[in-house]
Amino acid sequence: QVQLVESGGGLVQAGGSLRLSCAASGRTFSSYCMGWFRQAPGKEREFVSAISGRGGITYYTDSVKGRFTISRDNAEKTVTLQMGTLKPEDTAVYYCAAATGEYVLPRLSRNYDYWGQGTQVTVSS
User: Fold this and answer.
1) What is the mean pLDDT of residues 71-90?
2) In what order do the strands lie in the sheet with 18-25?
3) Distance (Å, rounded) from C-alpha 2 to C-alpha 113?
4) How far is CA 116 from CA 59, 84, 124, 125, in A?
5) If pLDDT is split at 50, 70 and 90, which confidence band does 55 have?
6) Which label site among 49, 52, 63, 116 has the fewest CB atoms less than 10 Å from its CB?
7) Alpha carbon distance 109, 125 (integer Å)
8) Residue 107: pLDDT over 90
9) Which whole number is the average pLDDT over 80-84?
10) Average pLDDT, integer, range 3-8
11) Long-range CB contacts (within 8 A, 24+) of 38-46
12) Nearest-CA neighbor of 81 among 26, 25, 90?
């Protein structure tokens, strides 16, 4: 019903920047809370950031505050994660997710209904 496609991953040096995008297909995109999660090898999936349907509320995990910025364009049905001052610890597969529930706790992965395929981000030392 809802398809999400991430793009923009790649290899960058520590201190560099990268912009991830998520393109969605859905008629009620503006009602979805959209989130970004990441998963490094051998680790559980981790919350990174989220944004409310109209873009008025944003959430960030502590480790990325001040470095990452989430935004959305409901006309284009896209969500963007601008990542700056990247660190090797940011290396992971990054996933875009959509939550359709009326009351969402955005930091919990189980509250999201649709997921993208993921895009690899590698930050070298």
Assistant:
1) 97
2) 3-7, 18-25, 78-83, 68-73
3) 9
4) 19, 22, 25, 28
5) very high
6) 63
7) 29
8) yes
9) 98
10) 97
11) 38/90, 38/92, 38/93, 38/94, 38/95, 38/121, 39/92, 39/93, 39/95, 39/118, 40/91, 40/92, 40/93, 43/92, 45/95, 45/109, 46/92
12) 90
* First and final C-alpha spacing in the chain: 40
- Own/partner pairs, 82-86, CB within 8 angstroms, 24+ separation: 82/17, 82/19, 83/17, 83/18, 83/19, 83/20, 83/121, 84/17, 85/15, 85/17, 86/12, 86/14, 86/15, 86/16, 86/17, 86/18, 86/121, 86/123
pLDDT at position 102, please? 72
